[in-house]
Design a protein that fits this description.
Elements: H1 16-23, H2 26-43, H3 45-48, H4 52-61, H5 63-78, H6 80-84, H7 87-90, H8 97-127, H9 141-161, H10 167-185, E1 201-203, H11 207-227, H12 235-251, E2 256-258, E3 265-268, E4 274-278, H13 285-291, H14 293-298, E5 308-310, E6 320-322, E7 333-334, E8 337-338, H15 341-352, H16 365-378, H17 382-389, H18 395-413, H19 416-431
Parallel strand pairs: 4-5, 5-6
Antiparallel strand pairs: 1-2, 3-4, 7-8
Helix pairs in contact: 1-8, 2-5, 2-8, 4-8, 5-8, 5-9, 5-10, 8-9, 8-11, 9-11, 11-12, 13-15, 16-18
């Protein structure tokens, strides 16, 4: 019996692009972007976790760090053949220079973009259980992702051209300083991919795509000018980048518009005054109502009050009192929870009794004493109470505190009907800037 050996099947070599993407430096570059964003976001989580718009804005503002990092990663990859002393060897292969460039540059750009997208996804997942209203805003995501990939490609060109190992860190520092100067000075903001944004503003629908064409066009121009056989082809992406940049500059401040949801109020009209919060944080309304429940219970039956507490941009209307702001996140509102309801209630009372545009001469000693008594009765400040308990001073200071305590005790000691009448007269004088109409204590 004769054994016949089976012919060996030839194994196909993996594509060079796949080998670079899986085994080379590119995955490390993506991991570096992901880790950097993770550290930055974890350190500032109180400032964004719980707000959809704040989350995306925080990731975008981190481009000040991640764009120079992506450029440095691309630059390090671009200088790889020089460090290995294989540049001349690669020059002898049949593959075109542009193809060799793309095989080396694209994996880094792709992995940097993937690291950014994974970080955005994880940040949105962290915000989801803490969100109290609104919806995710992902309009900035295309422009940010393309800007990071473009920085990696442009950095790759720098790494090929500049013959030093220090090119990558120097490029990162130069990029950070340049972006920081642009952001602080306000110059060139429409063209700055890392310009700072706030959560209450949204870009127009085409702005991220124009930014992507601007940054991607510049990177592609640099790549073609360096590696293409016909370098005149670099004119096409350059023309696209210049057109997109001109559109961004000409539009200027029109690139942004307020979030329509931020103009709406969500109200609880079962209390007096009513309590209205910004619709972006509608889910916080029960917490605000509970924090102010002690105040609204004491104001039951009192006349001449403002119609509502309102959380509006630009200030309250004539018949409203300003509600202490829930933003910026990280002060009163952290991860969807009010951090200090007692202090919040005191500030709401201060704004309820505020006299707005009344002239300073209206703030007589009697008015100030009445204001202090009302604040202490409706919602005493824990901070002020502690400060007064620990206060040390001379006889004048002690006499002032005794007089203030006596005035507060008079208001608190009134019967319910008398106190309602007194408070009604007090708020009537407040709304009319009538210092003489403030009842005495």
């Amino acid at each position: 019996m004769t054994l016949v050996a089976e012919p060996k099947t030839a194994t196909r070599a993996p594509h060079p692009l796949r080998a670079e993407a899986v085994r080379g430096f590119a995955p490390l570059a993506g991991a570096a972007v992901l880790l950097t964003l993770g550290v930055l976001l974890a350190g500032s989580s109180a400032r964004w976790q719980g707000g959809w718009a704040e989350t995306v804005a925080e990731v975008h503002n981190a481009l000040l760090i991640t764009v120079p990092l992506a450029a440095a990663a691309g630059c390090w990859q671009g200088g790889r053949e020089r460090r290995r002393r294989t540049a001349e060897l690669w020059g002898t292969v049949v593959r075109a220079p542009l193809v060799r460039f793309l095989v080396s540059a694209l994996p880094v750009a792709l992995w940097v973009a993937v690291g950014h997208l994974v970080a955005v996804g994880l940040a949105l997942l962290a915000t989801w259980p803490c969100s109290r209203g609104g919806r995710p805003h992902l309009a900035l995501l295309p422009g940010d992702t393309v800007a990071l990939a473009a920085a990696a490609v442009a950095g790759h060109v720098v790494g090929r051209v500049v013959p030093t190992r220090l090119a990558a860190p120097l490029l990162a520092m130069a990029g950070y300083v340049g972006l920081g100067v642009c952001a602080r000075s306000g110059s060139g903001i429409p063209l700055d991919p890392a310009f700072p944004v706030v959560g209450s503003e949204l870009p127009v629908c085409w702005q991220p795509w124009a930014t992507a064409v601007w940054t991607g066009g510049l990177a592609l121009t640099a790549a073609l000018a360096y590696a293409a056989r016909r370098r005149v082809t670099a004119v096409l992406p350059l023309a696209a980048a210049v057109s997109a940049g001109a559109l961004l500059v000409q539009t200027g401040e029109g690139l942004w518009h307020p979030d329509p949801l931020a103009r709406r109020q969500v109200c609880d009209t079962t209390t007096t005054p009513a309590i209205c919060v910004n619709a972006r944080y509608a889910g916080v309304l029960p917490q605000v109502r509970d924090a102010l429940s002690g105040v609204t219970d004491k104001l039951e039956g009192v006349r001449n009050l403002p119609v509502r507490w309102a959380d509006r941009d630009g200030g309250p209307h004539a018949d409203e009192a300003r509600l202490p702001g829930l933003t910026p996140l990280g002060w009163y509102l952290v991860r969807g929870r009010l951090t200090d309801p007692e202090q919040y209630a005191w500030e709401a009372v201060v704004m309820l009794s505020a006299r707005g545009d009344c002239p300073p001469e209206q703030l007589t000693d009697r008015v100030l004493a009445a204001d202090d008594a009302v604040e202490a009765y409706l919602a005493p400040s824990p901070v002020r109470t502690k400060d007064e308990a620990d206060a040390r001073g001379g006889a004048a200071r002690r006499a002032e505190l005794r007089e203030r305590s006596t005035t507060r005790a008079r208001l608190a000691g009134m019967d319910a009907r008398e106190r309602r009448e007194w408070l009604s007269a007090y708020f009537a004088a407040r709304s009319g800037c009538d210092a003489k109409g403030v009842p005495s204590l």
